[in-house]
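Dear colleague,

Thank you for sharing your sequence with our group. We've completed the structure prediction you requested, and as agreed, I am returning the results in plain text so they can be pasted directly into your records. Please verify that the sequence below matches your submission; if there's any discrepancy, let me know and we will rerun it promptly.
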Amino acid sequence: MKKYLDGFLEYLKFEKGLSENTLEAYGRDLSKFLAYLKQRKIENPIDVKRSDILAFVGQLLDEGAAFSSSARHLSSIKSFFRFLIIEGHIAANPADNLESPKIRRKLPEVLTVQEVDRLLSSPNVVSLTGLRDRAMFELMYATGLRVSELLALEVDDINLSAGYVRCLGKGRKERIVPVGQTASFWVERYIGRSRQKLIKGTVNRTLFVNAKGRKMTRQGFWKLLNKHVEQAGITKEVTPHTLRHSFATHLLENGADLRSVQEMLGHADISTTQIYTHLTKAHLREVYQRSHPRA
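Please find the predicted structure tokens below.
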């Protein structure tokens, strides 16, 4: 079965252009499924039945997996068997018409404008890394970039005079996002005063680098973000995605249209962006409860 999985992952990488992180997720899910089939002495995809897939998902739930996790595994399995159909390895798809568990979508945590101000003001901009941190946070909040997109930026990807940044999102799809004056100011200051000293004259086009002048990892970013969240006195659970959520929510609260926010976030489907309308409605209810004399 492994040769079919390898072929599927190659198809996703070269035909669909999916990122390494997404490929790893597919690989983990399907390796677990194939190990389950091996235990049941099923070693050819043509022998897999609908009942086998249902039993696998049932086992995941019995082991305590969340509905979201089992739904993700099922989605990976469906994609795998669609690929096998396309390649002519099987004639019938055992995953046809299998419904994923209905997941109640959890609303993401967002920061208030005041909390964002405190977080962005937390870094000590006198230090080289503090100035870098301020520039990173300002750019994330100004553009709604994913942390992977932020850390993949190169110096040539941002045009401060024109006020935009170019990034590669999921599926290696390029998008252009506006950058405001405040973020442009801090990024320009970082490039002019901090970046060259951090890279110590080496040839490195990565925009944001760590203290050793190398490309920053997501783990490194998470660590420094946690430090500044604590310094800012923010008690909410803040992740690298929180600034992205806050960016979208604050835009909608101030009158931005959903399609524009969708384009800036790089969402392929507007239904993904619509989750932020629930957040703005919740905000309106809070304002009403707080402000109306008969609320």
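Summary note from our side: The chain has 13 helices and three strands.

Kind regards,
the structure core
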